[in-house]
Design a protein that fits this description.
Pfam families: HAAS (PF22564). Keywords: Membrane, Transmembrane, Transmembrane helix. The chain has a domain of 118 residues. By secondary structure, the chain is mainly alpha-helical. It starts with a helix and ends with a helix. It is rod-shaped, with a radius of gyration of 26 Å. Helix 5 runs parallel beside helix 7. 82% of the residues lie in helices and 0% in strands.
Length: 197
């Protein structure tokens, strides 16, 4: 594979990343080819050492999604990390996807229940004193506040579990694919040993 073919496939695989990030990545890999040519290696040898550009692009996109998640910790970053990991394609999708969809569905259902509990607590707190509930107005206000506090606690636990889930998916991807540095450092040390020869 020539330098142009490798870089073209890598660029195509990085579509969707911020332009500056994709440009930096392509420039880094172009440097590999320049250094290889200076060491007397052909484009095909450098491309073989770097690996499949399509898979490399998927791994780089997954790593970018994981890094964004670790920096931002918001729902958009979480979704980006999960979809980037699923985009790797070979992570036992037939097994992982149904389990993941079941867990996400359960978390969504619990989230809706938490919101409903909070709203019902507010309704009891506001309407209870006028509805002649058992225990009087003070008891209904306390019951409403109690339900709202329980909903807030459950919501906090739900957020923690969701963060653990996203972190677990990112960990699984890194374990499964040994993304970026762990995957590239052994190759660069092997090629560095081959340079003097």
């Amino acid at each position: 594979m020539t330098r142009a073919e490798f870089l073209s496939r890598l660029k195509k695989g990085l579509v969707g990343l911020p332009i500056s990030t994709a440009s930096d990545i392509v420039n880094d890999y172009e440097t590999h080819f320049t250094d290889g040519a200076a060491a007397g290696r052909t484009d095909a040898e450098v491309a073989a050492a770097l690996g499949d550009p399509d898979r490399l692009a998927r791994e780089l996109r997954a790593e970018a999604g994981a890094q964004r998640w670790h920096q931002e910790k918001n729902p958009s970053a979480a979704a980006g990390a999960v979809f980037a990991v699923l985009g790797l394609g070979a992570i036992d999708i037939l097994i992982l996807l149904p389990i993941l969809m079941g867990v996400i569905g359960t978390l969504f259902g619990v989230g809706i229940a938490v919101i409903a509990l909070f709203v019902s607590g507010g309704a009891i707190m506001v309407a209870g004193p006028f509805a002649d509930m058992p225990g009087g107005a003070f008891a209904s206000i306390l019951a409403g506040l109690g339900l709202m506090a329980a909903a807030a606690s459950a919501g906090a636990l739900l957020a923690i579990v969701t963060i653990w889930l996203v972190n677990g998916i990112v960990w699984f991807a890194r374990l499964h694919y040994r993304l970026l540095k762990p995957a590239l450092e052994p190759q660069s040390s092997n090629t560095a040993v081959g340079d003097p020869a």
